[in-house]
Automatic annotation (TrEMBL):
InterPro entries reported in the protein's UniProt record: D-isomer_2_OHA_DH_cat_dom (IPR006139), D-isomer_DH_CS (IPR029753), D-isomer_DH_NAD-bd (IPR006140), D-LDH-like (IPR058205), NAD(P)-bd_dom_sf (IPR036291)
Taxonomic path: Bacteria, Thermotogati, Thermotogota, Thermotogae, Petrotogales
D-isomer specific 2-hydroxyacid dehydrogenase catalytic domain sequence ranges: 4-325
Family named by the database record: Belongs to the D-isomer specific 2-hydroxyacid dehydrogenase family.
Residues of the D-isomer specific 2-hydroxyacid dehydrogenase NAD-binding domain: 110-294
Gene3D superfamilies, sorted: NAD(P)-binding Rossmann-like Domain
Keyword vocabulary terms for this entry: NAD, Oxidoreductase
Keyword flag Oxidoreductase: yes
Pfam name, any one: 2-Hacid_dh_C
Recorded superkingdom: Bacteria
Protein name (record): 2-hydroxyacid dehydrogenase
Length: 326
């Protein structure tokens, strides 16, 4: 099996080479993203391995299909970046890694909540400059406050369990409620109205696109904290900026951003960022953004590499019976 990797970083090479000792697949790592210009590189390969900001639209899938690609192995849980109808039409099999470490993302979610609340991101720089003044660092007890989780799947449920330990009241909204959820299910309107903190844990799909918008923000408590470690498209960024400016939103923690494709995962420290919306977001003192690092733990990267290669191995041996998207 010849596998073409796209959007490869050094850590991908390290973890995949280690996992590949078991399989000895022929892997070629491309640093470039997969898009309409680079899909041509898939010629002479059997499998394409893609990540979250690769764009597998109809044109790209057509090129992959023309090049004889049989399998698209996503090394992510999300698959909103793949045109699944077209993949189906071409008979391209798509597999993913549904669960690599929900703990990694859940713990990062809690890290954003704690950092924003206690202003750790500001305190760090103050102390470095021998500024030990506390003005402006005032936080609030999480104990007794209410968190509303939109999406109570694997990650949402772990966030619920962690925050239960902090003594928070846990509310949840999900299209498909789960018996293991350690909180109270309510409808979306009640969740928006009652929550001090709202955290998003649904996939991005037609129903969840811009679930946080001008109307939903208007239903929230004044000074609400919004956290998004799921997918950027869940939030209407302009509406959130307006909410921050009017002080309706008191805190915003993001690990994902709607237009992250051209920004995240790259060192742009010497570049001019031409996304004015993103730059506006970073200008707020009560906004904390990380660059899609929720998944980035040793355990998660090990599981991603092992599951992705196992998916490919099962496909090759006609024993693929799990982790199938289409
Ligand atoms: P999951 O599939 O276990 O849970 C998703 C939940 O959302 C399910 O309970 C489902 O019923 C619910 N849901 C689906 N459509 C809905 C709708 N229209 N309205 C309300 N609820 C709906 O997924 P998991 O593992 O908990 O992941 C959640 C999201 O986290 C993923 O979709 C992915 O986008 C994101 N993620 C982010 C990572 C990061 O590095 N920041 C890494 C991994 C995942």
């Amino acid at each position: 099996m010849k596998i073409a990797f796209f959007s490869t970083k050094k850590y991908d090479v390290d973890f995949f080479n280690h996992a590949n000792k078991k399989y000895n697949f022929d892997i070629r790592y491309f640093e470039t993203k997969l898009n309409e210009k680079t899909a041509i590189l898939s010629k002479k390969f059997d499998v394409v391995c893609a990540f979250v900001n690769d764009n597998l639209n109809r044109k790209v899938l057509k090129t992959l299909n023309d090049n004889g690609i049989k399998l698209i192995a996503l090394r992510s849980a999300g698959f909103n970046h793949v045109d699944l109808d077209t993949a189906k039409e071409f008979g391209l099999r798509v597999v993913h890694v549904p669960k690599y470490s929900p703990y990694a993302v859940a713990e990062h979610t809690v890290a954003l909540i704690l950092s924003l609340n206690r202003k750790i991101h500001k305190a760090y720089f103050r102390v470095k400059e021998n500024n030990f003044a506390l003005d402006g660092l005032l936080g609030f007890d999480l104990h007794g406050k209410t968190i509303g989780l939109i999406g109570t799947g694997k990650i949402g449920r772990i966030v619920a369990n962690i925050l239960k330990g902090f003594g928070m009241n846990i509310l949840g909204y999900d299209k498909f409620p789960n018996d293991e959820f350690q909180g109270e299910y309510v409808n979306l309107d009640i969740l928006l109205k009652k929550s001090d903190i709202i955290s998003l844990h649904t996939p991005l799909n037609k129903e969840t696109y811009h679930i946080i918008n001008k109307k939903s923000i208007s239903k929230m408590k004044n000074g609400v904290m919004i956290i998004n470690t799921s997918r950027g498209g869940l939030i209407d960024t302009q509406a959130v900026i307006e909410g921050l400016k009017s002080k309706k939103i008191g805190y915003l923690g993001l690990d994902v951003y709607e237009e992250e494709e051209n920004i995240f995962f790259e060192d742009l420290s010497s570049e001019i960022i031409d996304d004015d919306t993103f730059v506006r977001l970073t200008s707020f003192p009560n906004v904390l953004i990380t660059g899609h690092q929720g998944f980035f733990t040793c355990e998660a990267l090990t599981n991603i590499a092992e599951t992705t290669l196992e998916n490919i191995y099962n496909f090759k041996n006609n024993t693929l019976n799990k982790n199938i998207v289409v």
